[in-house]
Design a protein that fits this description.
The chain is α+β, with helices and mostly antiparallel strands and 264 residues long. It contains 11 helices and 5 strands. Helices cover 44% and strands 12% of the residues.
Length: 264
Amino acid sequence: MTVAARNVGDHLREWRRIRRLSQLDLALDAEISARHLSFLETGRARPSREMVLRLSEQLDMPMRERNLMLTAAGFAPLFGERSLDDPEMAGARRAIDLILAGHEPWPALAVDRHWNLVASNRGVAPLLIGVDPLLLDRPNVMRLALHPQGLAPRILNLAEWRHHLIARLKRQAQAAGDADLDALVTELDGYPAPPSSDARPEDLGGIAVPLKLLVGDLVLSFLSTTTVFGTAQDVTLAELTLETFFPADAATAEAVSRTMAASG
């Protein structure tokens, strides 16, 4: 059984639903009549390339979805999509590697839109000691963090960190309209949940959730930041996220620096 290709109207209705907009809302934002938008959604009118781009901009659709809607309307995709292994992406890959290496000795990694690990620096490997080797085969960072055979048993504030990661992933899945991210959320929700802690979260002004990880006999505490390439014109780069971790206390800074120095 084959699945019929989605037309422009299908894309518009789906993304209006995701963005919780009525036809009138979107029409007003795009400065067109609600009647014309209705005709576009029902197939009674065919959009120009400029109209597809205007509507996709108002719907804040990801680059990948904009390309799909352009294709559905009979136009060529606007944004390229090349693997990071493509020779033409050598400059971008070099920039990513420089950013990751420049963050050492602190851990840093790059993930794709589904949180699959793309690259990491030398600060990450010591944190993964003891993780089930099966999880390290084509690793998914969310799975590594919360799987019972991953880092979860060594995360001292697991309830807080788990809530933080799953809430973040749910927001991402909603914004992207991505069924694979929805499936990952369901998987993570199915992992054994730790008992709720009565301990008060560390007060960091509401801007960050610390990761407290037991590594050997040391408790390492990290704060993380996220970087995206906001001006990227390639789908792969636009969907790439850099996660960088900083020591949240002096003991962590000293321990990580010492470990990195010992490893050469």
